[in-house]
Give the backbone structure.
Amino acid sequence: MNNNNLPHVAIAILYREGKFLMQLRDNIPTIFYPGVWAFFGGHIEPGETAEVALKRELAEEISYIPETVSEFGVYSDVKVVRHVFHAPLTVELKDLVLGEGWDMGLLTPAEIKAGKAYSEK
């Protein structure tokens, strides 16, 4: 598969006490996967590395930048190339400022797998 013409995104798997930080995405039809729970991240701008893009997106989306991130892998499909990183979330959920999306939460692997995460928003 030729990935040169596909958009590239940087994705953050942030974890704390056995749970993963996830975002309830805005329900805007023009974005990828509107209205679903997903990891934080976003598009890699021209001239950016995936890690720089990841840190920029996290600052914009939750006002948090991890001290260190580790590359998890690069995955692609017919729509997008995902550069995935992981890092511990070293602050409390209440200390994050949601700048994009409807909501955020710390979800267990079972909640993610079941696809039954809930938000009051």
User: Anything to note?
Assistant: Strands lie at 8-16, 19-24, 37-38, 40-43, 70-76, 81-88, 103-107. The helical segments are 50-62, 109-114.
